[in-house]
Amino acid sequence: MLNIVIFGAPGSGKGTQSELIISKYGLYHISTGDILRTEMKNQTELGKIAEDYIKNGRLIPDDLIISILSNVLEENSQFKGYIFDGFPRTLVQGETLDQLLREKNTSVVAVFNLQVEEEELITRLLKRGNDQQRTDDNLEVIQNRLKVYHTQTEPLKKYYRKKGKLFTIKGGNSIDDVFEQITDVIDHLSF
User: Is residue 191 over pLDDT 70?
Assistant: First the structure.
């Protein structure tokens, strides 16, 4: 199976690149952010819990996200692979993802780290907030999300680098250029 993690700070282009990869390789898109926003919109119990965390720029607890992910994997086992967008976000989540996939006799084959300058991230997120009326894309929450990303999510780079699965991509380049860099790696992987 072709299992890919798209990794990067909020606003780095994970969702955009995920859609392009899905289109080319036929993977199932797992975006924990999209799942949580749907739950919040529908005012489910999960949505109410998630909303409190998200509106303050905090990460959802590992056990809750892992439970959601496990259900999504089970419900979509017919696909030839997955693209994980916005997951994992902590070392515990990374280790748990490896365990969940191992139980299905597969693994993550590549982790794409989209690197973008922080000033550009803030500009992108503020624009997205205006364009999509996303309340979590305001300056205060963005700054907190970036801080959380640096302290809780960045340690995953070392984890995946040790496994030889981390590929750093300049996410500040054009969408097409970033996608070309990603597909060059995927097309040369043996899995």
Answer: no
